[in-house]
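sanity check this fold:
=====
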Amino acid sequence: MRISCPSCSAEYDVPDQALAAGPRTLRCARCGHSFRAALPEPPATESEPPPRSIPPAAPPAPGKVMGAPTASPTESARTPPPPPGAAAQDRLADAPSSPPDRFALAGWLVTLLVLALAAYAGYAFRAEIMTAWPPSQRLYALLGLA
């Protein structure tokens, strides 16, 4: 939405989402004047749409208990749309989560295996490591493995 400062007529592009929650006080970067800005009101319609008629209920299927709540497949599949001012993060929080990726799980397991093997090799070959790299003697001494 394009907004102009009432004092100096500087124009700014303000996203509609910034004003969706209601009017906000803005400050002009050019002159420092503070003013309130809001989304324009939608045009009022003279006639409201006619109310939808409710279709007659279908007879219960054989074996169904009378008075038991039932939901049609179209009603259970519908989800209410998010409010117009909802942030993308809020919409993602309501989205169904996907199952964990098997390749990611395998990658974590391989990484843990490699780290475990490296720790074992550092313990098993500590004498050779301390001979080849003398500064490692301090580390092994701190760990009590010297």
Observations:
- The longest strand covers residues 24-27.
- Helices lie at 16-19, 73-77, 88-94, 102-124, 126-132, 136-143.
- Residues 28 and 72 are 54 Å apart (CA to CA).
- The chain has a mean pLDDT of 77.
